[in-house]
Specification:
Number of helices: 2
Largest sheet: 4 strands, antiparallel
Shape: elongated
Order of helices and strands: EEEEEEEHEEH
Structural class: alpha+beta
Number of strands: 9
Length: 191
């Protein structure tokens, strides 16, 4: 999987973040902060600068006090994600009949396509991982619900004919295995 992002954790002092992925335009490089709610806040391009081609530096922003120290650094523990989101609205270069075709324009178009494909593949891979984790959690929850239903049925009542006839259970006929349930309460009340 191609590297399209670098992740960091805020420590209250770090304002510069070096990243390792290539890009076509600086506008394709974004920085997002994940706050305690789990939602990522992608910063506006006016909230950071490029001291060099592979480093972002956060600026001090008065409105961002929920995540930012007075120095401009993300507060300790905030997740910082520097990532690439290549513009895919239009091709990087357009060719016209009779005009010269430069290799740099062709390369930019192919790189744009490659980068968008890499980013889409990474998103798909992340989504698949999340879906698999959700399926595992749902299966475990289903197992717990089945066990809870069985325990409740054992204490309340059971039916073997689709609900026409119910049998009270939990009469405590065997003290070591049968709990005192509704059946026990009914028998005791009748006595």
């Amino acid at each position: 999987m191609a590297t399209t992002e670098n992740n960091f954790t805020g420590n209250g002092t770090q304002v510069s973040y070096a990243f390792t992925f290539p890009y076509l335009e600086t506008s394709d490089v974004k920085i997002g902060l994940t706050l305690g709610t789990g939602a990522e806040q992608v910063l506006a391009a006016t909230e950071y600068t490029f001291p060099n081609a592979t480093t972002l530096k956060l600026d001090t922003i008065s409105s961002a006090t929920t995540w930012q120290e007075t120095s401009g650094a993300p507060k300790s523990g905030i997740k910082v994600r520097v990532h690439r989101k290549t513009a895919d609205d239009n091709v990087a270069s357009t060719f016209y009949p009779g005009s010269a075709i430069r290799s740099s324009d062709l390369n930019d178009n192919f790189l744009q396509n490659l980068y968008v494909t890499q980013e889409a593949r990474n998103i798909t891979s992340d989504s698949t991982t999340i879906a698999e984790e959700a399926k595992t959690i749902a299966t475990a929850a289903d197992d717990i619900a089945d066990a809870a239903k069985l325990a409740t049925d054992r204490l309340v009542a059971t039916t073997s004919n689709g609900g026409t006839t119910w049998t009270l259970t939990g009469n405590n006929t065997n003290a070591s295995t049968d709990p005192k349930g509704v059946g026990y309460a009914v028998t005791t009340a009748e006595a």
